[in-house]
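[agent] plan:
  1. take the single chain provided in the ticket
  2. run structure prediction with default settings
  3. attach structure tokens to the ticket
  4. add a short note for the reviewer (M.T.)
[agent] executing step 1
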Amino acid sequence: MNRKTTQKTAFFIFRALGLLVVAILFWILGFIVYNGIGVINWEFLTTAPTAGMTAGGIFPAIVGTLCLMFGSLVVSFPIGVMSAIYMSEYAGNARIVKFIRVMTNNLGSIPSIIFGLFGMALFVNTLGFGDSIIAGSFTLGLLALPLVIRTTEEALKAIPDSYRTGSLALGASKLQTIGRVVLPMAFPNIITGLILSIGRVSGETAPILFTVAAYFLPKLPSSIFDQVMALPYHLYVIATSGTDIEASRPIAYGTALVLIFIVLIMNLLATSLRKYFGKKVKTN
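[agent] step 2 finished; step 3 output follows
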């Protein structure tokens, strides 16, 4: 077999594997859509569950999920970005950077249920937050933190040092260089971390099970110290327990479809922000 034939064979295998991944994705989405689209209507999206969660809607769970997604980003995004700035711009190649990087990688490999137990011990019990949105947000924020740090650090490293040197040569301080040159240029890629962290926390069940999720709470939260229903936990409950699992099975698929749609919308918004800031950097 000559080199040209080998190359064509390799390309064919790579293309086939790529198409297989796409086919699996569409298969999963098609399965969820086929089984869940029948229950999707205005009442399902805007009312609370009734009849032991075998009827009614999932509006409280939608609101709770959005609250937890937003709260986790408020926690993880500033801390992650500032940590990455320190590691990339200030610490250099010091041993502490290697130590932080190793610990960050280890933190990212910890199972989510461990985060749930830690969040229950620290935020729920020790700090006295109880089962609440703030406890769940901090727990999910810690879960997403390693991902935000890694993606932000890589985005900052991708900026050529000549931009930093030029800014400093013009009399700008280190902080001004980071705030006005490095961060604006890296921000489109930093948004990638935001997108990935949204997908990371939106479908987690174990952390919110210990810190915030309620089995049945057909009302909206009034403060960050309230419990909420959440789509992942609601999906788990109606698919595995309840008075009539078979009757609630279509609701489970509908809930899964809504969760996928919410993640898709959030990703599209984040992608739009990335494109906007990317064009802004090019025009400047």
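[agent] step 4 note for reviewer: The first strand starts at residue 49 and ends at 50.
[agent] ticket updated
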